[in-house]
Write a structure and sequence with these properties.
mainly alpha, elongated
């Protein structure tokens, strides 16, 4: 019985590791990349203004919405 449990644990761990190795990380879409860049820009501006707490949340929300219609 212990042997069977050990074999099953090995099979499961090997299968999970193999499955993780098979999945390749695909590059972000252009929309995702644009959002990341916008987030970086807004974050840098918020840090420059030394915003914290609710002020920062409000600023980030407005900054990220800017240009969307």
């Amino acid at each position: 019985m212990k042997h069977m449990i050990a074999v099953m644990a090995f099979v499961l761990s090997t299968g999970l590791a193999w499955g993780a190795a098979e999945t390749e990380k695909k590059p972000p879409s252009p929309a995702q990349q644009a959002q990341r860049e916008k987030m970086k820009t807004c974050n840098a501006e918020a840090a420059k203004q030394e915003l914290k707490g609710d002020e920062r949340k409000k600023f980030m929300s407005e900054c990220l919405k800017a240009g969307k219609k």
